[in-house]
């Protein structure tokens, strides 16, 4: 998706100002919220027409950013959805959730700004951590996170009172050693979040997940994830 258009009192056209480049090319395996896998690193690559240092001047003074982005694989919406947090059995209004099936397929994520690469073929580009985005996600705006205005420690959280409990991940050192060192922690973090759809609880099922240049196969039984294989994608 290269453009998002909505019409109300005229026509609004949104162009991507950047694209997210990361290790997860599919929806399966994506963290369900930003920040749940804080070591997961990706790049915000500025789009043609927006690769200007001046547009990012001062951004290095902030530790976190808001990314406004597009659900590039969802093109329908529903007034009610079934949040995974509630086991996929309870319907709530779409505006009471963060489900992707929205009238305007826009998402909002808070990420950590790790560094800015000013030069190079894709520069300037932002290296960020903790995103919940697929590789190739269009980004429509970037805004700095400002704690005095954005942080509300006493806010009510409705049905989402806290993070889900994590699973124990079992992966042999030999399998894990196949990955680049900086990708090992993020993979274990993703698997610990239980990437399965909530309606799938078959302990004998083998799941496959694309992760960077690798295909990872694993099984989940009770509260444990067992990695079966990590193979290079051909």
From TrEMBL:
<dbReference type="GO" id="GO:0032259">
    <property type="term" value="P:methylation"/>
</dbReference>
<dbReference type="InterPro" id="IPR041369">
    <property type="entry name" value="TrmO_C"/>
</dbReference>
<keyword id="KW-0949">S-adenosyl-L-methionine</keyword>
<dbReference type="Pfam" id="PF01980">
    <property type="entry name" value="TrmO_N"/>
</dbReference>
<protein>
    <submittedName>
        <fullName>tRNA (N6-threonylcarbamoyladenosine(37)-N6)-methyltransferase TrmO</fullName>
    </submittedName>
</protein>
<dbReference type="InterPro" id="IPR036413">
    <property type="entry name" value="YaeB-like_sf"/>
</dbReference>
<dbReference type="GO" id="GO:0008168">
    <property type="term" value="F:methyltransferase activity"/>
</dbReference>
<dbReference type="InterPro" id="IPR023368">
    <property type="entry name" value="UPF0066_cons_site"/>
</dbReference>
<keyword id="KW-0489">Methyltransferase</keyword>
<comment type="similarity">
    <text>Belongs to the tRNA methyltransferase O family.</text>
</comment>
<dbReference type="InterPro" id="IPR036414">
    <property type="entry name" value="YaeB_N_sf"/>
</dbReference>
<dbReference type="InterPro" id="IPR040372">
    <property type="entry name" value="YaeB-like"/>
</dbReference>
<keyword id="KW-0808">Transferase</keyword>
<dbReference type="InterPro" id="IPR023370">
    <property type="entry name" value="TrmO-like_N"/>
</dbReference>
<dbReference type="Pfam" id="PF18389">
    <property type="entry name" value="TrmO_C"/>
</dbReference>
<feature type="domain" description="TsaA-like">
    <location>
        <begin position="14"/>
        <end position="154"/>
    </location>
</feature>
